[in-house]
């Protein structure tokens, strides 16, 4: 288990991993939600630290989002941009070739900036209106649910490339059974929050249920447009699930704030 977690951390983040842990890259996708939980914990710590020194909400949101990108090495954001460039191509037969090009086109740049701006705006709003454990739960679970969406895309849809970073995910996939770990962890955390925070169950249910619904829609939409998935669309599934879930939490947090 330690080797599998080490492999997932090495693949999905830039965090330094001790060599003595070893690294097993087989079936690492199922551990993606656990990696997301760790990323969420780092975001919570960063948010708390910046709040402790009275950094204003907008500036704090910018730093948290930059930290979010930095800890993943921009892996999933790159998928957003490549996917957008592929979608911009009218001929479906050329889409994979365009996505494999290391150069970023105009549509890719616009998509990447859109994701970053939407995340910053949503987080700034949440920091301004949602204090305490509610905002921390959102930061903790949103990265987890984004990677839950990736596991779903891997398990549910065919892989379009013979090679590529995403090929090992599909090859070692255990199918929909791989969703058990991420689902169980998300439900356990949400249930613990709802049990400890009076009136906390609507937020907990919305995060897990809403995150799952958004991930299902995003993965299905990308599959419909491409006829399957690639490593790039896996990354796009993560980022768009995170972004849309963050945005969805803003009105809910506003309604729950006295």
Mean pLDDT figure: 90
**Low-confidence regions:** none
β-sheet strand percentage: under 5%
Tally of domains: 1
Features:
0% strand; 74% helix; 258 residues; 11 helices
Description:
This protein is mostly helical and 258 residues long. It has one domain. The protein has eleven helices and no strands. It has helices at residues 2-12, 32-52, 57-72, 75-87, 95-100, 106-129, 133-156, 167-171, 179-196, 201-226, 231-256. Helix 4 crosses helix 6 (106-129) and helix 7 (133-156) packs antiparallel against helix 9.
Kindly summarize this structure in a few lines.
74% of the residues lie in helices and 0% in strands.
Q: How is this fold's topology laid out?
A:
Blueprint: H1 2-12, H2 32-52, H3 57-72, H4 75-87, H5 95-100, H6 106-129, H7 133-156, H8 167-171, H9 179-196, H10 201-226, H11 231-256
């Amino acid at each position: 288990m330690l080797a599998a977690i080490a492999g997932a951390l090495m693949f999905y983040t830039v965090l330094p991993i001790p060599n003595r842990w070893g690294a097993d890259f087989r079936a690492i996708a199922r551990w993606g939600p656990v990696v997301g939980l760790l990323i969420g914990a780092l975001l919570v710590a960063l948010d708390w630290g910046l709040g402790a020194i009275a950094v204003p909400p907008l500036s704090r949101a910018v730093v948290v989002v930059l930290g979010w990108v930095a800890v993943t090495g921009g892996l999933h954001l790159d998928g957003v941009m490549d996917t957008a460039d592929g979608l911009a191509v009218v001929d479906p037969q050329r889409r994979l070739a365009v996505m494999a090009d290391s150069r970023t086109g105009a549509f890719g740049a616009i998509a990447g900036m859109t994701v970053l701006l939407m995340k910053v705006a949503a987080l700034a709003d949440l920091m301004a209106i949602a204090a305490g454990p509610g905002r921390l739960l959102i930061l903790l679970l949103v990265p987890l649910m984004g990677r839950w969406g990736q596991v779903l895309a891997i398990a549910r849809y065919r892989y379009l490339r013979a090679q590529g970073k995403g090929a090992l995910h599909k090859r070692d996939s255990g199918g929909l059974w791989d969703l058990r770990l991420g689902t169980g962890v998300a439900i356990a955390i949400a249930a613990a929050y709802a049990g400890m925070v009076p009136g906390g169950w609507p937020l907990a249910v919305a995060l897990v249920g809403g995150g799952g619904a958004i991930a299902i829609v995003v993965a299905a939409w990308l599959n419909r447009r491409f006829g399957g998935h690639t490593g790039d669309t896996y990354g796009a599934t993560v980022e768009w699930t995170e972004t849309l879930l963050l945005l969805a939490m803003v009105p809910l947090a506003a309604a729950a704030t006295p």
